[in-house]
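Q: My labmate handed me this sequence with no annotations at all. I'd like to see what the chain might look like in three dimensions before we decide whether it's worth expressing. Could you predict it?
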Amino acid sequence: MITGDGNLSDLLAGAARRWGPKTALVCDRLGQSVTFAELDRLVDRTASALRARGIGPGDHVAVMFRNDLEFPVGWLGVLRAGAAMVPLNIRLAPADLAPILRATRPALALAAAEFAGTLRELGMEPWPFDVARLDVPTHPGPPPRPETLANIQFTSGSTGLSKGCLLSHRYWLALGEAMREHGPKLRHDDVLLTAQPFYYMDPQWNLVASLLTGAKLVVLERFRSSTFWPSVQQHEATFFYCLGVMPAMLLRTPPVDGERDSKVRYIGCSAIPEGSHAELERRFGAPWHELYGSTETGADILVEARDHDRALDSGIIGRPLPHREIRVVDQDGRPLPRGVVGRLLVRGVAMSDGYLGESSASTVGNGWYDTGDLAIWEPDGFVRFAGRVKDIIRRSGENISAAQVEQAVQGHPKVRLCACVPVADPVRGEEVKAYVVTVPSTSVEIGELVEHARGQLGSFKVPRYWEPRSSLPLTPSEKIAKAELRRERDDELGPCYDAVEQAWLDRVPPLPPPR
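A: Here is what I predict for the chain of 515 residues:
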């Protein structure tokens, strides 16, 4: 039964008592490794040091590290002190970080030395947090309640700037419980592996699942297609979760002898590339399963191991988990019969408590959250994904708000209008294409616009493709008709500038070589 009762501080303490000398966490980048008991002690010292600096319930603490031990220790230490973490994306430009810091008002920042300058530029003096130098008396504080805020987790919105999801201890515990009771059904003898950045939710719920089950968690520095599968084999991983772009990149790596020999028993993936499911399994000799959820809701729908064959290359994303209700509705919010495409709504226990500065993450009332996705709820109970309706572009696992990119580009004095749309890419899933209309009687080099965007946005948000236009199609309500832009050329990019190749194109570019 998925309830999320308890808190992450007590969860860690219980794991230390139960599996004390067992390896809990390996951070591959620097070769760091700790047992459950050592992790508990480091977190206790971190919490005590934070409390000595005046941090406690109601405070927000920013955390900015690479995939090193300092991140999970910092996160759990912040929670044990009674405060909430604001994870900062290390790839964001200062212009992206500034509104996050203004909105969350962290009382303190834990950050690696390499990011200290960026934070100082934004008016924060970071605490030089180093787990190797933690040596303070411990003073346990009162345990948080299940509903206590644990994270302000920022996620890209569909039509504007990122929003801060308010995630409680209950949210994280329920997500971990879902992985223990369903899908991979994680156990104490499992080895979990993650290559996503720790400032995303995926390594965080992997850590919670480890504390719930006694499984070891291996955290890679980042995803590299050429070394990921060898790392899976080297660490004898039995489970990992990945994003849709990762399998596409893995399939483009040259095959090597012995790559089907691994201990992986369950791979969870959101958006397995269409038509590639069976190919992935033939190539790597391990079963892949769809997992569906979001930062706002956690885990909602997944494919159980017993349903693997039914879901293979079918578009099925699984059945709703027991703590989730789903509804497929039309444009007016009326429930649709089974087998009909509509907007997917979800509700249930242990979801986000809303967005920072807003009352609720529910967008249609009565506890229902509009996922922004299209789905078909089949008569046999399976859910089939049918597309995305949110105005986001998903590049290499990053959710990019088209509106934010457009706003940044339109900040250039010679740009009148900008519209950004996704362009399918076999490696990164989607790339960003910008249509640009300049101010009448002016001219501007595309390279100048690219450099302007780089100064306003994180590197992953800068459009790769740029097409100048004299005008853009508009809807009757004077909005840019992006659907028309997408329909103009099926597979062809058309005449545009490729900012990566630094060249003008008049056709689809050749596929990039394997990385």
